Prior knowledge:
Blueprint: H1 2-15, E1 21-28, H2 34-44, H3 50-63, H4 80-85, E2 92-97, E3 102-107, H5 115-122, E4 127-133, H6 140-151, E5 156-162, H7 171-185, E6 192-197, H8 221-227, H9 233-236, E7 241-250, E8 253-259, E9 264-265, E10 270-273, E11 279-286, E12 295-296, E13 300-305, E14 316-318, E15 325-336, E16 347-352, E17 355-369, E18 374-376, E19 386-399, E20 410-414, E21 421-430, H10 446-452, E22 458-463, H11 470-483, E23 488-492, H12 493-496, H13 508-527, E24 531-535, H14 541-550, E25 556-561, H15 565-570, H16 576-581, E26 603-605, H17 612-625
Parallel strand pairs: 1-3, 1-4, 4-5, 5-6, 22-24, 22-25, 23-24, 25-26
Antiparallel strand pairs: 2-3, 7-8, 7-14, 8-13, 9-12, 10-11, 10-14, 11-13, 15-19, 15-21, 16-17, 16-20, 17-18, 17-19, 20-21
Helix pairs in contact: 11-17, 13-14
Amino acid sequence: MNEFRAEARLMAAAEHEEKGLLRFLTCGSVDDGKSTLIGRLLYDTKRLFDDQLTTLEKDSRKYGTTGSDMDFALLVDGLEAEREQGITIDVAYRFFATEKRRFIVADTPGHEQYTRNMATGASTADLAILLVDARKGVLIQTRRHAYIASLLGIRHVVLAVNKIDLVGFDRKRFESIVADFEAFAAQLELTSIVPIPMSARFGDNVIGASPDTPWYEGPTLLDHLESVEIAEAGAAGAFRFPVQWVNRPDLSFRGYAGTLAGGSVRPGDPVVVARTGQEAVVERIVTREGDRLLASAGAAVTLTLDREVDLSRGDILAPPTDRPEVADQLAAHLIWMSEEPLLPGRSYLLKSGSATVGAAISDLKHRVDIEGFKPLAAKTLNLNDIGFANLSLAEPIAFDLYDENRNTGSFILIDRFTNATVAAGMIRFGLRRATNIHWQALDVNKEARAHAKSQKPAILWFTGLSGAGKSSIANIVEKRLHLLGHHTYLLDGDNIRHGLNRDLGFTDADRVENIRRVAETAKLFVDAGLIVLVSFISPFRSERDMARELVEAGEFIEIFVDTPIEVAEERDVKGLYRKARLGEIKNFTGIDSPYETPLSPELRLPAAAGDPHIHAETVLRYLKAHGYI
């Protein structure tokens, strides 16, 4: 039976492959009837198999919320948890077709905690059906989903005022909701808004006009979906080919595999590597079914070129006369998807297409107020917040503006340690910053400065809890190095906060910025040929790794002064732990702010016991053994 159904679906898809394809999503607040609407569409367009109907009838009796009627939402709510709770958690995709058009529909969650899933469904959609419960009207989540849809490039919206039967098919109620929605939607970049009064449960105005709304003269939902004109932006745009991998099965063949993110390409077309500007000509378009004479947006192919070029995963091929931007700083809208707040300055991974680079939020410009879509000053973003920020990347990438190409103009941010996606981003423009200025070549470089001092420059990064003994050990190490004739500088956390970082507090965001500034300062000392000692709590691994990545391999020595918190509290001559325990000091590391212990430091000093001079000697022996002094 499954094989028959699969074959039937393939035949149906082949039968309609010449028809236009519309991708749309259903969104809105929870319980507005999104899954029911999709189920009704599938049922009324007769796109269900007999076994699916049998299963629906059985599930309706077991899980249904519509009495003796079939619960169409169960056709889409496939997860057991969704069926039991009567909500949509994941994004469910369905394919169906009519005589006029093919459709791919995404049913997205309404709960605020699953906003990330809604954004996922909207990222590939051409049209949004935004459902509103006629009894409740426009809610905050309605506004949020409308804004996200607009932000993600959706320009056509159907305002489905659902459950109109539960308000007696009241025309005034319908018109009031439409006026409310259009009032705030005027601020969004929408091309069309089509309001439709409907009852998804009973099929009113879904595929046929309802006799209960004689006052409504607009199209049914299906009529509109079959006739709405959607621009084929991907196919009409410039050729873009992000390389996913280099295909080289033997020495006689080198191809570049990927999926066209825009435009089209033919053998003989000139192309350039966007990042380097190297030119080549497309020789062949290779697929499993054989060579092709044309490939368009969405096609997965392998391209061969007429010459060897420096081209690898993450690079983009483009026309010589219409290249994407290449920069290491950009401005973008962010949809924050993590329960952990955004920390400006923290190092994340940015993945755009097949390219992955280190990135940090260099400046959070504002957070968007969903009530009125106004920008609000903010230092961070929390779960489901939307903001606008500048990003600084570890290296340049090629990109387009999101409004020009969704594929090459979007990205996700990934937490370096959990690999969780924390944000989705839409690039608005590249930034012209100092990184666009060429480095000035200097005759006296780091190596020359270090040679004159008879040492190898490095950062000795002492990390540990407050009261662990970091500053005491670092101070002894510097005195010993000074007596040996070496050139050093000690950056101590307390001292730096009296000058360079006097404007920072002790929130997680301020701690991240504190370490970013110190790391950049330490990098300058390394370039000066010095051995710089940094004594900071530096509680987060992300920021310590960021500091390590600023300098060359071997120039960062992480020294974990490993002291249990009980011992640190006993040494608390400043009384800080006592005040933190009493709640007089907030965000104190080890009490109400976490300390992430190093996973593989170069040195671990068990400082709970032992003379600081002994630990200092351990550090000196390490420096001698590895050629720093």
